[in-house]
Design brief:
Shape of chain B: globular
Number of strands of chain B: 0
Number of strands of chain A: 22
Largest sheet of chain A: 10 strands, mixed
Order of helices and strands of chain B: HHHHHHHHHHHH
CATH topology of the largest domain in chain A: Dipeptide-binding Protein, domain 3
Strand content of chain B: under 5%
Strand content of chain A: 15-25%
Structural class of chain A: alpha+beta
Number of domains of chain A: 3
Distance between the termini of chain A: 64 Å
CATH architecture of the largest domain in chain A: Roll
Number of helices of chain A: 16
CATH superfamily of the largest domain in chain A: Dipeptide-binding Protein, Domain 3
Helix content of chain A: 25-40%
Oligomer: heterodimer
Distance between the termini of chain B: 7 Å
Shape of chain A: globular
């Protein structure tokens, strides 16, 4: 920069050289600012058996607590509910989590008494007691609570049964129910009941981004953009869990890049694999590929209010006309199990696939039934589906296969596919006579899936029974199943309900999805958990 | 100069206004609803409507836009629907990573592209010229996600020379510059490939034009060495169009970074945007798009000013 004299006036002129210097400096500054993440504190070492490992994920957790965000896999590793699905046994069996034992059922199931362990600590170091559970639940359900308006609580659906919660003594909590809820045991596995450190909560700590959970792992570092490192929480109560000193969570959105990272040994575990990808990884040395059978069901709902679908023979014919086995083999590359009723084998004793009416592929029978129902030449209709989304399998290809099957028996359908949320909002209103849908139950209690989809009180626009099945027998069995905690009675009721549902065919029963997980052969102590998201990884370690 | 600068700054106002409308409309008019993604599957219709009300999504689009614009003008880009953090914080956390990737790519594009272009111009018509220009057409045409995946397979999976994703070794005790550079090589090269080709082609044609000028003949007639003629007299004068190309290139690179960041799991702005788009996180996508656009406008402004600096003949009156 220099000063120029022009006449009597002085003028400051920026010359080329100065400009170039400024530009150079600006360039250097931006480059250096790009290196801002430098100097991040190294993760502290923790003593534990086995070596650390890294898991690869499709998306990053948007928060760390399940009650206010979607931490997915991260949540499974750092959080622990009062009750939990059995991780060591990798099943849906409900076992105590931070509770000392299974709940005591009082007042004919209107009050549940839970005794807490006296050695549970939250990740901020404070001890868990009855007050921490009471405060935690109240801040979500009590509209007058000082924290209630601060967040959009995600666990409210599982807390809606609770009238009030009372601390009986330091480690005992009583939950009073508004009305009887047979699925309550299952609901206690939800983090909505888990509890949190009262002092921190009272200080309005940022719940989305602060780890206040009580699980075997705690967050050691979390870099936005997909690199989180967990380390074993030394005050965790169960010495059998948390065998790896650390678990790295690496987000790699692109599935092929994630597979490459697994092959290159940069990650040790990944899930959400398609059958084709699983086939490829099975051939890679040093990798193990396991299938995960799910609670998931993919079906076609048939609106029973109007002709011709109001005739049970037509609905049964549509079931007989679909070659489920070929669909699974050819469209899904074998990554599914045939469905006979809404509940898959993963529901354990509630499974009724071997007792309900089977609709094995039989186009002749389908034609005969259509003829009997007064449609010897079939009829025209539309299959409504969506353009695809995680959890919907391959809706268009599957619809096309079914369209061809139905056409062979005279039922001529168009396919109308729309974007997911547009599709779902119309489906919920009961606008589609024939619609596809995949359903992932959020708990292993049959209530969510069977009751919501088939009870006569659950019809649209507010509820999910889009087939408009309103059958007194089904209602009777579902009410019975929902009205008792006696497992033998519940099982029988849900099995009987499924028998009746299969007979009435409000759905075309297609399949239950199988997904795949792949992991390093050096990863020990891991069993694929049917609930997914690597729930049993808390037991895993690398050798 | 100052009045020119002032006028250019004024001109950016309507551009930014336009960008804000586009950023807002694109995400709002796209099918999909953040509320369905925010709520669990069992949510009832009344839960959905209540959530929509609480987020202000039940209001007419124009009102939503103006209330967003109002807060943007007061410096508030809003809060992410999913992470509940201020959008500006999310963006500023990722932005340096994208800049690092982009600046490295430009550097690679210049370092490899310009010599290639010079060689092609000097050896015009030779097999070297044809070969390098064919290579640059191929480089320019290949989609960068494909190049990225190929590089990952060759250098990450087969040869195991370089890491396939991320910015640092996740489980390392310390984060070193060397580790960062190792992680930077594949994504920055992937991003740079098409621009290398572009720079090479542009350098070639621009240099050829200059080399036909009279003063080059004079320089040669003076008996200067050919190297000196080409680099000192030829290249310097052919740089001006190249600078304008680089200005636009930065825009392309910012756009290309979205794909490359997703493939290499690079924690930048592009990755953030993809996540926001899939989740229909309206405030996040709007904020990030606006931020990227402002950056692009600013970079082009700087490129315009650099013209005058590089070439004293250009003055803005």
């Amino acid at each position: 920069m220099r000063t120029k004299k022009k006449g009597n006036a002085k003028r400051t002129v920026i010359d080329r050289r100065t400009m170039l210097k400024v530009a150079g400096a600006a360039g250097a500054l931006t480059t250096v600012s790009g290196m801002a993440p430098f100097g991040l504190a190294p993760v502290a070492r923790a003593a534990a058996a086995g070596k650390s490992f890294v898991i690869g994920l499709a998306s990053e957790a948007d928060g760390v607590s399940t009650i206010v965000a979607r931490p997915d896999h991260l949540g499974r590793l750092i959080e622990r509910g009062l009750l939990d699905y059995d991780r060591a046994g990798a099943s849906f069996k409900i076992v105590p989590g931070t509770a000392a034992s299974m709940p005591e059922i009082l007042d004919d199931g209107l009050r549940f008494r839970i005794k807490l362990r006296d050695d549970v600590y939250f990740h901020d170091g404070s001890k868990m007691n009855a007050e921490s559970v009471v405060y935690w639940v109240n801040m979500q359900i009590d509209k007058e609570h000082p924290l209630n308006k601060l967040y959009k609580w995600r666990a409210l659906g599982r807390l809606k049964s609770i009238e009030k919660v009372v601390a009986v003594d330091e480690y005992t909590v009583d939950f009073y129910l508004k009305k009887f809820n047979a699925a309550q045991m299952d609901w206690f596995t939800d983090i909505g009941y888990a509890g949190g450190p009262v002092e921190r909560l009272k200080n309005k700590v940022d719940l989305v981004n602060t780890d206040l959970a009580a699980g075997p792992y705690t967050i050691a570092s979390r870099q936005r953009g997909g690199a989180t490192v967990l380390e074993r929480f030394d005050k965790y109560f169960d010495p059998n869990e948390g065998n790896a000193p650390r678990i790295g969570l690496k987000t790699i959105p692109e599935v092929n890049a994630r597979m490459a990272a697994l092959e290159a040994g940069e990650i040790d575990w990944m899930d959400g694999l398609s059958a084709e990808s699983a086939q490829h990884l099975k051939k890679v040395e040093g990798l193990e590929v396991s299938e995960r059978k799910t609670l998931y069901v993919w079906f076609i709902s048939l609106d029973m209010r109007n002709k011709p679908l109001s005739d049970v023979r037509v609905r049964q014919a549509l079931n007989y006309a679909v070659d489920k086995e070929s669909l699974i083999r050819d469209v899904l590359s074998g990554a599914a199990e045939r469905s006979y009723s809404p509940l898959s084998k993963q529901f354990g004793d509630f499974y009724a696939g071997d007792q309900v009416k089977h609709y094995d592929y039989d186009p002749d029978r389908a034609k005969a039934l259509l003829k009997e129902a007064g449609y010897p030449d079939g009829f025209k209709s539309t299959i409504y589906t969506n353009t695809g989304r995680i959890g919907q399998m391959k809706p268009i290809e599957m619809s096309q296969f079914i369209q061809a099957n139905w056409k062979a028996v005279g039922v001529d359908c168009n396919i109308e596919a729309s974007e997911w949320s547009a599709f779902e909002s119309r489906r919920r209103k009961g606008e589609f006579p024939i619609a596809t849908r995949g359903w992932t139950p959020s708990t292993a209690d049959p209530d969510g899936l069977v009751f919501q989809n088939f009870h006569s009180s659950m019809v649209p626009p507010t509820q999910r029974n889009v087939a408009f099945l309103q059958d007194p027998d089904v209602d009777k069995w579902l009410d019975l199943g929902m009205g008792t905690l006696d497992m033998a009675k519940r099982t029988n009721a849900f099995v009987e309900a499924q028998k009746r549902i299969a007979e009435l065919a409000p759905w075309v029963f297609i399949c239950h999805e199988i997904t795949f997980e792949a992991y390093n052969k050096d990863l020990m102590g891991y069993r694929v958990h049917p609930s997914g998201r690597g729930r049993s990884l808390t037991y895993a370690y690398k050798v | 100069m100052y009045s020119y600068l002032f006028r250019r700054l004024l001109q950016t106002i309507p551009v930014m206004f336009g960008v804000s409308i586009v950023a807002f409309l694109i995400i709002h008019l796209a099918p999909g609803d953040p509320v369905l993604m925010l709520l669990p599957q069992e949510a009832t219709q009344s839960d959905i409507e209540e959530m929509r009300r609480s987020l202000g999504l039940d209001r007419p689009l124009a009102i939503q836009y103006f209330s967003w614009l109002q807060s943007v003008l007061s410096g508030d880009l809003g809060q992410s629907l999913f992470t509940s953090r201020p959008v500006i914080v999310e963006v500023l956390e990722r932005f340096p990573n994208t800049i690092l990737l982009t600046v490295t790519s430009i550097f690679l594009a210049i370092v490899f592209g310009m010599p290639l272009g010079i060689l092609a111009a000097v050896k015009r018509g030779s097999s070297l010229d044809t070969g390098s220009m064919v290579a640059s057409v191929i480089g320019w045409s290949m989609p960068n996600f494909w190049i990225g995946l190929m590089l990952i397979i060759v250098f990450g999976v087969w040869l195991k020379w370089l890491p396939t994703s991320g910015m640092y070794d996740l489980m390392a005790e310390e984060r070193t510059l060397l580790d960062l550079l190792r992680h930077l090589i594949l994504p920055s090269f992937t991003l740079a490939v098409s621009h290398m080709a572009y720079v090479a082609r542009f350098t070639r044609s621009s240099l050829l034009e200059v080399l036909n000028q009279d003063y080059i003949r004079t320089a040669r007639a003076k008996g200067l060495r050919e190297q000196f003629v080409v680099l000192r007299h030829g290249l310097r004068n052919s740089l001006i169009p190249i600078i304008s190309v680089l200005g636009v290139t930065i825009g392309h690179l910012l756009g290309g970074a979205v794909i490359v960041e997703a493939v290499f799991a690079w924690p930048g702005l592009g990755n953030l945007m993809i996540k926001g788009i899939f989740a229909r996180d309206f405030p996040l996508v709007q904020g990030a798009m606006l931020f990227a656009a402002v950056t692009f406008i600013f970079v082009n402004l700087v490129a315009d000013i650099l013209y005058a600096v590089v070439d004293p003949r250009i003055r803005y009156q």
